[in-house]
Structures are given as structure tokens and as C-alpha cells.
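From the pipeline queue, job 12 of 40. The input is one protein chain; the requested action is below.

Action: predict structure.
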Amino acid sequence: MTEATDSRPFRLTYVPGVTPAKWVRIWGERVTDTPLELLAGNAADATAALRQDRADAALLRLPVDRDGLSVIPLYAEVPVVVVPSDHVFTAAEGIALADLADELVLDPVDTPLVWDHLPGRRTLDRPASTSDAIELVAAGVGVVVVPMSLARLNHRKDLTYRPVDGAPESRIALAWVEDRTTDLIDEFIGIVRGRTANSSRGRSPHETPKTKTPKPRKQTEARSAPRKQDPRRSGGRSGSGSGSKPGRRKRR
């Protein structure tokens, strides 16, 4: 592990749909001498930004080429189908993968979903991006399955979405170059994993740890205090040199 050697900000790139606001806020509260710089990126450039030292860490979607990278999966996204607001799917809270069999399902080039078999009917050409696919859905050309975060990011009043049971999930992960693991990287790992500020790996290297006052040891009473002698069991009464009871005086 290496220490940070300059005062530049901690640079975090993130792909569309990821919302790191909570983690950025916690960083600002814990690491007061190193600002966090957010760099909005895209899925195709996320790992390149790390390898070219344009970012210190990245929040990206799996799968990625992990060569030379350390990767920690964080959470999975719910897959949804984006449809026109008057589509028959809107009558249900969710649909099954088999329900897409008769639909024209768009497959954008930058899709983060890994399909074993794409459901429904395919188009001759693939949209260049998820945004382009959603524009086609709005124009009445097919439907598209995407992570819920991307459906929200590309929200339109004339479109809606429903969860798809059985569709592949997209996983969000934290990644960085393995050879450039720093204390600041460890600090951000602690934040995204929910560690408290006082945990051993979640504490800023610039933060003074709280000390705990040691509790006094409890001593056994029998060991710490001398045992009191019961005078009723003692053989040392006043005026008597033995442990026998004094005899009664005989009447004359």
C-alpha cells in the first residue's frame, strides 16, 4: 500500500445511472483535507480512465476487463422493459421474460446486460446506445430492456417501464488499478461498504482515533480483603488460654 504524495483531489469516475451522491457526502465529512472530484464518464471509457491515470477509482458496470484492476462488486440493478405509456404491459406491475416473445426487442451496442438468448424479435440494426434505443421506443419502434437506473436516467413522459422477471441483472462495482492502491482508496472502500468512521479500515489516515478509557479490573473479594475471623469460632477468648468452655462453679 502506498501513501498519497500530493494534494490533488481524489478523482472518481462513474458511469451513467450510478448515483454516488451519498458516498461523496460521507467523504466530505470524513476526509477534510482531500476533496473528491466527480468525473462523469461512459461505460466504454471507465477502465481506460483508470489505466491512463485520469481517475483514481471508478464506479462501473460489470463485466469489464479486470487485467491489472482490483474490483469489488457492490450491488445488482433491477432489469426493466421500457415501453410506451399506453402499452399493454402497463396493466401489470411486472412481466415475465416469456411475455417479450412477440415484441420487437432492441439490443443497443452499449447494453450492460449479458443475454444467453435475447428474447423477442430482433431488429436488423442495433442502436448505437441505450439512449438511442429509448428514442426508438418513444417513436413506436419496439421495446428495450435496461437496468432500472438507466430507465430513470432517460425518463420521458410518454414512456414507462416494468420489471422483467428472468432478465439478466447488471452489477455495479468499484474498481481501481491494483498497483495504485492508496490509503484514500481504502478510505473510499470503507465508505461504500458502510464502515463507520471509527472502524480500523474505514478511518481517515488524518483522523485522530478515539481512545477508550480502560475499565478497572474486578478483584475477587476473597483475594483482595483479609478474611474476618468469627469470634464465636475462635479459641482465644479473654481470660482463657484454650478453646474449651469454662466449667460451672460447684455449690457447696
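Job complete. Residues 1-5, 202-214, 219-225, 234-247 have pLDDT under 50 and may be disordered.
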